[in-house]
Design a protein that fits this description.
Layout (H helix, E strand, L loop, with lengths): L2 H8 L3 E4 L6 E5 L9 H8 L4 H27 L7 E5 L5 E9 L4 E5 L4 E4 L5 E2 L2
Antiparallel strand pairs: 1-2, 3-4, 3-7, 4-5, 5-6
Length: 128
């Protein structure tokens, strides 16, 4: 399953906070994929209390973190320990090294001179 397929399966088209409980409920799923969802969500936001908005914020932040972890994992599985890679540092230097370890969100790259870099997989390219 690709990240896009996962995202499409998990996407909630309309959320309302139940006024009797503190949990979120899915009110309905819209079958039309091309229909814009943001206006519907924004109209629901006007009806929420401050406490409900704070709870919704926590749910949104968790969802974004999950999506980032899934994306990083998807990028990481293409990188093998011992594989030669390269990336561009913050100052514009091209750094070459070998994948030494997969971390939770990053990859540890060790250069020929022994420097260790923790790099997001999205910045790495295979080095022939």
């Amino acid at each position: 399953m690709t990240i896009q397929q996962f995202d499409e399966r998990c996407r909630l088209d309309l959320l309302l906070l139940s006024t009797t409980t503190t949990s979120f409920s899915i009110i309905r799923r819209v079958s039309e994929e091309n229909e814009p969802q943001l206006p519907k969500v924004l109209s629901v936001l006007d009806r929420l209390t401050e406490e409900e908005l704070v709870q919704l914020n926590h749910v949104i932040v968790q969802r974004i973190r999950l999506m980032q972890q899934i994306r990083a994992h998807g990028e990481m599985i293409n990188l093998r320990i011992g594989q030669k890679v390269r990336f561009t540092s913050a100052v514009g230097n091209i750094i070459r090294g070998v994948v030494a370890r997969h971390n939770r969100k990053s990859v540890t790259v060790v250069t020929d001179d022994g420097q260790q870099w923790r790099v997001s997989p999205r910045f790495l390219e295979t080095d022939p």
